[in-house]
């Protein structure tokens, strides 16, 4: 750390306290620099903090709630600093804590039954415990194994999110931690901690408890060791979970969160709650095949779940911008539909038969049309329909098309695509607003996709094709409405909005678009790495020793792989963009070219449309700088004969009208178009002006000095002070884009 270096640091306030004959822990905790000193491994400070007395006091700051009349720093600052000291992961301090059973018992005494637990202190407690679990895994897990009542205390406080995070780590949901310390953590599989968590759905009415318990169980279903995951997916455990769900006295949050756990067991890749990828772990199950016993254990409660879809209109009214919902769909009914959707994707024959027997598909299809503006519901019902149509069981598709009358329902909705008031004898939960123009129903997009899917499958499935052809209204609607709609909504055929070249491409992400580029990322990365390695972007004034040292660092920290990551992370422009980042020919220039280009930029200026040539306007002057002497020396030398001819031609284009002008470098053309105005020289009276024909004219102030005039008179023809951008560098201090090593004025 720079403050530890001699001559750069001042006396630390912590050192001043440590120099005293007597001081207290509170004095150190009150200093703002104590955390920095701990991270800097201040030996005197760490030797003091590692003492058992000090570690005990730090723990008490974290677990004990202060009295009401104490100072604020005791309430807020000291607990925070104490937590930060532990989470600095200093070996000697953690060792003092984890190897002392009394101190560990003191730490976990925070979990003992109280009326309330301070959520702020619970957060500090969670950070310290997780730090011990990660850094001192073996002794920590041995302590928990000897005191398994701690697991029960953690489950009792599962409603506190910080405590829930501790419990998730203890269950082995961190892949790296579990794989490295399998023997130390495997004993958790033999405990009844999962049963205790499941029972929280039946013993607590708090929605936070239900949500946190469901999050732990969903995480176990996806990331936990196989032993715990198998235990959770057993029919006894799932039956126990659904039993709490269907109790009449339970709040609806129990149903919603319990079904989220069931969905996780059926489809481990489905993220239904929170963000479970926080530990950076891939799915442990991969292409996991759902246990048939798990599915059969859930089918016993499917009939009771379907009964919950029938809700009386007297339960509530929700007013919306398009009318009112009487009753609203509700999260619990939406979750039941999602559960049925996932259940059908498993491909279980027993589940498909039970769905047909109970009429689940017909009920969810009715909900689709009863709530025409709930796109969440439409998405799940569409998945149900697709699962039925693509199922290997032909009875399921026949049930959907015949008994559920899918085609007739689609045609009826398309015929009357506006929201209208229903008859008195027909129940319609969605009621339009009075006195307003009827709105179009919001399920047309899903109906179009379902219809197109029917047509697609009819090409290979004779049964589906027969159902479509038997309905004459469908054939007529397909020709008059669906085909025209598909043509209109085909975004790839639009003249604007989507490039026509994307007609045959199906892109699902930005990553696919990136891979379609012609850029050679490996080559670009190599060039970028070489550019940094050879110091192209280093300071020209840097001395050789410092430059070599920095290049060594760049070789270490900016290798080819790092360069490829940098290039890959850049957003590559379209091919037609002329100013794209990677179409610049001078992007990866090396030393010789870079120096020559910098010399040319410093010696030449672009033409200004408002150039007066009088030298009074600062914007019309060009700085010659350090190249003046070199310019004067080369002006007096004779250029080669072939360069003189080229020079004269470029000077007087009107004398050779039939001879085309030599092609100029694109770099200079672009530079001339984007003309920049330069500043006058600070110490040289010479001024250069770029004439409209591309010549550079050197003007000198008339100060009575005839030396320069004589030098110009004695110079041979063709070596005048007027230079063009295309003449030889031997006759000019200006660097050109087309030069040879012999003709360049730059080494």
UniProtKB/TrEMBL annotation:
Residues 598-747 are annotated as: Disordered. It holds the Pfam family SAPS. Coiled coil: none annotated. Residues 697-712 have a biased composition (Basic and acidic residues). Residues 613-631 have a biased composition (Acidic residues). Residues 598-609 have a biased composition (Polar residues). GO terms for molecular function: protein phosphatase binding; protein phosphatase regulator activity. Belongs to the SAPS family. This is Serine/threonine-protein phosphatase 6 regulatory subunit 3. It comes from Noccaea caerulescens (Alpine penny-cress).
């Amino acid at each position: 750390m720079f403050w530890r270096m001699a001559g750069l640091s001042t006396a630390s306030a912590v050192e001043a306290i440590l120099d005293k004959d007597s001081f207290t822990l509170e004095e150190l905790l009150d200093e703002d620099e104590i955390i920095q000193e701990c991270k800097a491994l201040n030996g005197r400070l760490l030797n003091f903090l590692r003492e058992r007395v000090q570690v005990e006091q730090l723990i008490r700051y974290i677990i004990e709630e202060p009295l009401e009349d104490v100072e604020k720093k005791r309430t807020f600052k000291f607990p925070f600093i104490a937590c930060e000291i532990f989470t600095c992961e200093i070996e000697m301090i953690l060792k003092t804590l984890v190897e002392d059973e009394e101190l560990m018992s003191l730490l976990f005494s925070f979990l003992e039954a109280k009326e309330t637990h301070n959520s702020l202190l619970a957060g500090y407690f969670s950070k310290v415990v997780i730090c011990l679990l990660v850094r001192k895994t073996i002794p920590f897990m041995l302590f928990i194994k000897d005191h398994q009542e701690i697991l029960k205390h953690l489950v009792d406080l599962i409603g506190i999110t910080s405590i829930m995070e501790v419990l998730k780590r203890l269950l082995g949901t961190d892949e790296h931690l579990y794989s490295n310390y399998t023997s130390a953590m495997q004993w958790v599989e033999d405990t009844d901690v999962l049963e205790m968590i499941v029972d929280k759905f039946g013993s607590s009415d708090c929605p936070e408890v239900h949500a946190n318990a469901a999050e732990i169980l969903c995480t176990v279903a996806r990331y936990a060791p196989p032993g715990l995951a198998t235990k959770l997916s057993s029919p006894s455990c799932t039956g126990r979970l659904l039993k709490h769900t269907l109790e009449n006295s339970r709040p609806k949050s129990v149903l919603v969160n319990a079904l989220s756990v069931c969905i996780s067991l059926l489809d481990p890749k489905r993220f239904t709650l929170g963000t479970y990828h926080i530990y950076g772990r891939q799915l442990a199950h991969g292409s996991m095949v759902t246990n048939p016993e798990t599915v059969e254990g859930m089918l016993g409660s499917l009939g009771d779940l379907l009964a919950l879809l029938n809700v009386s209109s007297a339960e509530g009214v929700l007013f919306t911008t398009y009318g009112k919902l009487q009753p609203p769909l509700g999260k619990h009914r939406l979750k039941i539909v999602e559960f049925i959707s996932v259940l059908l994707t498993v491909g279980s024959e027993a589940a498909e038969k039970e769905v047909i027997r109970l009429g689940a598909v017909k009920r969810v299809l009715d909900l689709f049309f009863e709530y025409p503006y709930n796109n969440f519901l439409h998405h799940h019902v569409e998945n149900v329909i697709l699962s039925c149509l693509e199922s290997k069981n032909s009875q399921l598709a026949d049930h959907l098309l015949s008994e559920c009358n899918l085609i007739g329902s689609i045609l009826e909705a398309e015929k009357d695509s506006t929201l209208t008031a229903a008859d008195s004898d027909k129940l319609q939960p969605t009621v339009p607003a009075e006195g307003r123009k009827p709105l179009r129903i919001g399920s047309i997009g899903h109906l179009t996709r379902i219809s197109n899917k029917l047509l697609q499958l009819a090409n290979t499935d004779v049964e589906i094709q027969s159902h479509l052809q038997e309905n004459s209204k469908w054939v007529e609607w397909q020709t008059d409405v669906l085909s025209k709609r598909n043509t209109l909504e085909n975004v790839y055929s639009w003249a604007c909005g989507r490039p026509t070249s994307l007609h045959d491409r199906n892109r699902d992400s930005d990553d696919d678009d990136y891979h379609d580029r012609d850029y050679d990322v490996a080559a670009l990365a190599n060039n970028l790495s070489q550019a940094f390695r050879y110091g192209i972007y280093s300071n020209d004034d840097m001395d050789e020793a410092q430059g070599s040292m920095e290049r060594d660092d760049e070789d270490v920290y900016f290798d080819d792989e790092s360069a490829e990551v940098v290039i890959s992370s850049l957003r590559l422009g379209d091919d037609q963009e002329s100013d794209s980042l990677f179409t610049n020919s001078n992007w990866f220039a090396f030393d010789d070219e870079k120096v020559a280009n910098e010399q040319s930029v410093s010696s030449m200026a672009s033409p200004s449309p408002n150039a007066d040539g009088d030298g009074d306007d600062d914007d019309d002057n060009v700085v010659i700088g350090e190249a003046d002497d070199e310019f004067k020396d080369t002006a007096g030398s004779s250029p080669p004969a072939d360069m003189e001819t080229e020079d004269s031609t470029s000077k007087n284009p009107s004398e050779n009208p039939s001879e085309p002008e030599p092609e100029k470098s694109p770099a200079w053309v672009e530079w001339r178009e984007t003309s920049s105005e330069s500043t006058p020289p600070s110490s040289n009276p010479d001024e250069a002006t770029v004439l409209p024909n591309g010549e550079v004219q050197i003007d000198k102030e008339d100060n009575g000095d005839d030396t320069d005039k004589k030098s110009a008179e004695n110079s041979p023809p063709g070596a005048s002070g007027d230079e063009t951008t295309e003449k030889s560098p031997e006759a000019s201090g200006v660097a050109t884009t087309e030069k040879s090593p012999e003709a360049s004025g730059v080494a």
